[in-house]
Amino acid sequence: EADIEVNDVLLRFFEHCRRFVALVEENSTAMHQVDAFKEGPEMRRVLERVAGALCLPAGELNADLVQVAFLTCSYELAIKNVTSPWCSLFSEEDAKVLEYLNDLKQYWKRGYGYDINSRSSCSLFQDIFQQLDKAMEESKSSKPISSPVIVQIGHAETLQPLLALMGFFKDQEPLRANNYARQAQRQFRSGRIVPYAANLVFVLYHCDHAKAPREEYQVQLLLNEKLLPFHHSNQTIALYADLKDYYRDILQNCRFEEECELPKNNNTAADEL
Length: 273
Prior knowledge:
Pfam families: His_Phos_2 (PF00328)
Strand content: 5-15%
Distance between the termini: 45 Å
Number of helices: 14
Mean pLDDT: 94
Number of strands: 4
Main location: membrane
GO molecular function: acid phosphatase activity; bisphosphoglycerate 3-phosphatase activity; inositol phosphate phosphatase activity
Family: Belongs to the histidine acid phosphatase family. MINPP1 subfamily.
CATH superfamily: Phosphoglycerate mutase-like
Low-confidence stretches: 268-273
Subcellular location: Cell membrane
């Protein structure tokens, strides 16, 4: 009996953004960093070790097959809490290499790799602040809050671009095929950012004893039920007015239709960097 609205344009923006679909999703060269890592020295060593464990010639395996085996191990451990026989094929170092392979894909397809990845989520970002604005205005006028809780349900593909748009988990150096060792302490780890049942919560507070009108409304952000420090202050609570000021450009100037228009010339995905 809940009032549920299906809004794929808002929550599956990645399917409705023509620029993203053409330049990233369907562009065979957009994942060149991922493809290069599959052929690189780290993955070759993994292939050799797995082939040895299976008593197979290394030439009969490729990165995609090994990744399927690793994901099978991961899924059974995460979902069933059992150690799959496939897990015995991999060392801890192998797991780190395969984790990086997946992070590379998420970085270039859903994260910071191309601007359109995150810019395509700006309509969702703006919608969140419109709902917070509405609650604040109702509170100021002493009206009951018409929507005290708003739940939007999407996918990791919804959340990862949104977090990138907000500037979270951005490393100084982009993730590339040739900097695996330097990225050992990277912030961008998709398995931690958007695990199973990932969630992002905005909490708006009305502070009765605020010293100034600007301090009356404050906000917290929780990612996967843990407080997330704001990018602009590194604090876990912020004045709502300050947060809107920090994201003013996105809130005022990011327009989905314009962001997602196909370029008139024959740009490649690399031009989006």
